[in-house]
Amino acid sequence: MTTIRATNLHKRYGAQPVVQDVSFELAAGETLVLLGPSGCGKTTLLKMLNRLIEPDAGTVEINGRDVHAQRPEVLRRGMGYVIQQVGLLPHYTVAENIAVVPKLLGHAPAAIAARTEALLTRLHLPPARYAGQLPHQLSGGQQQRVGLARALAADPPIILMDEPFGALDPITRASIRREFRELDELRSKTVVLVTHDVTEAFELADRILLLDAGRVQQMGTPRELLFRPANDFVRLFFAAERLALQLRVLTLGDVFGEENLTEANRTTTVHEALEQLTGAAADGSDTFTVAQLMAAFGEALQREEDAWKR
Amino acid sequence: METLSALFTFWHEQAGKLGEQTLQHIGLTAASLLLAVLVGGPLGLFLSRRPRWAPAVLGLAGVLQTVPSIALLGFLIPLLGIGPKPAIFALFLYSLLPIIRNTLAGIQGVPPAMVEAARGLGLTDGQVLRQVELPLALPVLMAGIRTATVINVGVATLAAYVAAGGLGEFIFGGINLNNPVMILAGALPAAGLALAFDALLGGVQKLSARRLRQTGAALLLALPLLAGAYLLPRATGKLLAGFSPEFVGRADGLPGLTKAYGLTHLPSVVLAPALVYEAAHSANVDVIDGYSTDGRIRAYGLRVLRDDRRVFPPYYAVPVVRPALLREHPELRPVLAQLDGQISDSAMTELNYRADYLHQDPRAIAEAFLRRRGLWRDARPAVPGAPVVRLGSKIFAEQYILIEMYAALIRGQTDLAVEIKTGLGATSICFEALRTGAIDLYPEYTGTGLLVLLQPRPQVIDSLGGRPAAVLGYVRAEFRRRYGLEWLAPLGFNNTYALLMRGQQAQALGIASVSDLGGYLRK
């Protein structure tokens, strides 16, 4: 079922076109990553979805309804919103920040409190310790988790995220990303996420929309973008990190054949398998060595590329 | 040490007045601040939404800030009369700039990401303002209010000039009387108030944003209450007097008058000397103090109440000369004597009116007067090498006119040359110029000669009893003895303190003298 449908969106600032004729459809529960270099129009595109920016032409429909059919506040209360600078209100406690939208929606205080507590617990911020703290008392990673909790508080079906991990150091960033991926809360949500980080996009996306100078260069799964680039821009965009991305895209199922593996192992990426083999957690129970894995990976890669060439 | 004990004595004696003035001071400050917050806050908000207007509005508020306070009050009197209205309005104008600017700066200082996040969450514009922008701008806004408060406590002293009360009454009374104790008696509590307000608001500013919101609301509620301090009942009576601070303070002013005439039931307000005539003219007050030959008496249709018990010391104008001048040129004596007793109070008032209000040239006024009296002679042709008579005057119109008269008489009736040195400033400068021979003659007033130049012991002054002839006799003898200078004969008018009323009102009430006034008030 289509949740978000953008049709022929245009936006220009003065003579400068920022978004040119962008259309896409997003099914419920899908995660779409808007990817591209700085100034490619990805943030503008995101903000058109919740009307923080109005398009010059084109329409956005949410669940089949034009966004202009409702008041912007009402529209926005139905969509979680997370931004890079977090934007926590500094004079509100963590709990109050999380409660903003449910309060606007008129939820009962008891329900809000229970929800806040549950979210904080799930995001590894014990409520007893953190609920009453002010944002400036938290680390950057903790603030970003609160920002995420705030977006999830009213359980909106859609979450918009603008470079949500952009302000964090690489280590915190990787760990929060992992939490984010494993968060049940997000599994069922339709997510639109803006990033300029290729690795992040590959790790989180069901589909990627790659933009340059306001135009869609390619939209598809990470595997499609990597192995069947639509044009030179797409190819070059991933060139620098090609190997790392291939390790993340191919699964053990791809390299060893599905029939040789247990159910759980099939969807494990080569990247993850390598981490396990070389990491401290390696327990010798693996059925293959690094050398075997890399050899199989090479063959699989060859097969993929041949397959796309045909 | 002496000053300190005198200060405490003063406070002790004037405790009631001190309390009243302090309350008035707080009331003025709070009322004007409340207005400024109510107007400046929304204006600052408006500017944050329409930044294009900001330079114009802030520029205008800045210009208002640079208008000298006494000038601003002067502009406001014709519009708002005297009393608290012009004072509060002036203070309001002065506090606008810091409040507008800090509101604007506070709102603009809220990180755009914060506002966008709030909008993205679904807050309406109004909710963004109330829940995000205002709370985050509040510390800066409070700093603006704090600045405005301290400015206002200081400027509110000037309220005493427009009969709005406050601690300025002591301060300006003290300045006019050259009484440091009285100045301190008003200035110290004013400074204390400024410090106290500053500390209080400084404490408020340090509170967390959350507490600040509550405290800010509480303060906004408290302001009208404080402003209410101003509305404490004030004495009322049949007539209202407006007096200059000097008059209220000096012994031969209001205190002497009250004692001699039993002037009870005459509530009074304190006004800047420059404003009393205006206030009487526009019927803001009924009785004022002034000088008996001021041109504004004529201009505003005021009546001088006769000082029938002679409380005000006589200030008869008399030319004072160096005797050497008359010895060398004996022909001068009859020439100068032609003006003796020739100018009455009303005549001098008329002449001053021409100078101050019709802006006629003193020389032309002098000529017209002499022609009317048949004393005018065209100037004789200049004689080369003729001796020069140097005439001096203080810097105000009355003296310029007198000196032009003497110059015309000398030029028309003798072969002597005349040099006029106007603008010798204060009494002491004129007097020193005469004593050292830099000038030969200037018009002086008997009261000034007695109280300012001779400064005899109080017993001597009492023994003279304010009788014009006795005072003139005393200064003439003492000047001759001490300085070898000669007082000639009085010109006729007495430029002294006087109580004045609007002519029409005085006539309607049948009041011609200060005794009549006392009688009317007691009725």
Automatic annotation (TrEMBL), chain A:
Keywords, in A-Z order: ATP-binding, Nucleotide-binding, Transport
Stored Pfam families: ABC_tran
Coiled coil: none
GO molecular function: ATP binding
Taxonomic placement: Bacteria, Pseudomonadati, Bacteroidota, Cytophagia, Cytophagales
Domain ABC transporter span(s) in chain numbering: 4-238
Natural source organism: Hymenobacter mellowenesis
Transport found in the keyword field: yes
Protein family according to the UniProt entry: Belongs to the ABC transporter superfamily.
Name of this protein: ATP-binding cassette domain-containing protein
PANTHER family, A to Z: OSMOPROTECTANT IMPORT ATP-BINDING PROTEIN OSMV (PTHR43117)
Superkingdom classification of source: Bacteria
PROSITE patterns per the UniProt record, alphabetical: ABC_TRANSPORTER_1 (PS00211), ABC_TRANSPORTER_2 (PS50893)
UniProtKB/TrEMBL annotation, chain B:
Pfam families in the record: BPD_transp_1, OpuAC
Transmembrane domains' residue ranges: 25-45, 57-80, 86-104, 150-175, 181-204, 216-233
Membrane topology: Multi-pass membrane protein
Keyword set, alphabetical order: Membrane, Transmembrane, Transmembrane helix, Transport
Domain ABC transmembrane type-1 stretches: 22-201
Superkingdom of origin organism: Bacteria
Localization per record: Cell membrane
Family membership noted in the UniProt record: In the C-terminal section; belongs to the OsmX family. In the N-terminal section; belongs to the binding-protein-dependent transport system permease family.
Protein name: ABC transporter permease/substrate-binding protein
Organism of derivation: Hymenobacter mellowenesis
